[in-house]
Amino acid sequence: MMTKPLAKSAVSQKRVLDAAARIFRDYGYAGATMRVIAEEAGLKAGSLYYHYQSKDALIGAVLDVGMNAAIEAMNAALATLPPEATGRQRLEAAFRTHVATIIANGDYSLATSRVYGQVPAAIRAQHEKLRDHYGLIWRNILATAQRHGEFRGDVNLTLARLLILGALNWTAEWFKPGNRSIDDVARGFAAIVMDGIAVPAGTAS
Amino acid sequence: MMTKPLAKSAVSQKRVLDAAARIFRDYGYAGATMRVIAEEAGLKAGSLYYHYQSKDALIGAVLDVGMNAAIEAMNAALATLPPEATGRQRLEAAFRTHVATIIANGDYSLATSRVYGQVPAAIRAQHEKLRDHYGLIWRNILATAQRHGEFRGDVNLTLARLLILGALNWTAEWFKPGNRSIDDVARGFAAIVMDGIAVPAGTAS
DNA sequence: GTCTATAGCACGATAGAC
DNA sequence: GTCTATCGTGCTATAGAC
């Protein structure tokens, strides 16, 4: 079965979107000009408006595409786990998937995290639903494991989730392929969050 | 003993800097215009150039002032700990100090974290020394505690530091005074990083 | 679909009055 | 120290040819 070839329009549209992600990432929302985005996509500035109505529409598409990729990857990863998977296994899979997605779609992830605070409020408000949906997936993983007695009852799960997402999202800024693999990072982070870095009390020295 | 009154110039300069931090935070590097910064400071655009040579000099000052405040607060906090303080106590104090500084200087912290990737490379390069210095303080806290056998030997301290700073720096984006206090957040985060969220193995259910 | 050309506006920075 | 006025440049977006 052959993959249906994309229309010329769709190909260009994707090229524009990828170019926009890179330029927004490097220059911020206001600093990314339609001229430079067009050049990065191999077009002239005026031609962008055939694919996207405005600069606002373009940044909105970058935000949504990146977040949808993260949601789909996470749903797919969790769906492949057996029903009897432990909370620990689920959380570790979520760590791995989140980091892998963030690195694979690095241009979109970094563009999003760097420009989010500068995007017009109307665009941000419309995007918020996807963000909240993604947050809910994490809430569920943590709450389920705590309810099953795998995570301590005295841990504030909201705080735990904010710690986890803050730490994982920052990987997009510092991770460089080469020495450490994505799996190393995810496993290392998961180990710290689940077991801590301190020598457990009552351990022989 | 009276505090020496500041010269009119110094007062204005500080007002300009505070205004710049707020505007850079909200509009990004390119989106923050000298006209708007001036208005926020109660001046006209041309008057800014009496205090700062250029927009680049202004963002450079915002970055440096914010980071120097963090370094000084951390040094002061660690200096008040008794010499016999444990690694756990030092780490908890560092968590508390970092979050408190970030929230107290929220305009500067958020401006820095949001525009850092968009600032001209020359400005960023000059600021890097302060960043590295701050990172070194954290490296020392973690390495010392591990050398003393308080933190597990199999924990990768670089990974731990990246997790900690990613999580702590993100607090600037979501923390709102009201329900949770800064100390609650710092204590909660420190507890997770040191002891984990999982129920320890061998614990009776 | 992509181009050129341009309208209308805002930018950073400077000069010189006060 | 702060102002007004302005230079030269570059911005988003549109119009219409190809």
Question: Pairing-aware structural class of the strands and helices of chain A?
Answer: mainly alpha
Architecture of the domain at 62-195 in chain A in CATH? Orthogonal Bundle
| Quaternary structure | homodimer
Q: CATH topology of the domain at 62-195 in chain A, which one?
A: Tetracycline Repressor, domain 2
- β-strand percent of chain A reads under 5%
* Mean pLDDT level of chain A: 96
Rg calc of chain A: 20 Å
Largest sheet of chain A: none
Topology:
The structure is a homodimer of 205-residue chains.
Chain A: H1 8-31, H2 34-41, H3 48-51, H4 55-79, H5 87-104, H6 106-115, H7 121-147, H8 157-174, H9 182-195
Helix pairs in contact in A: 1-2, 1-4, 1-6, 4-5, 4-6, 4-7, 5-6, 5-7, 5-8, 5-9
The first copy, chain A, binds a DNA duplex (18 and 18 nucleotides) through residues 8-9, 12, 30, 33-35, 43-47, 49-51, 54-55.
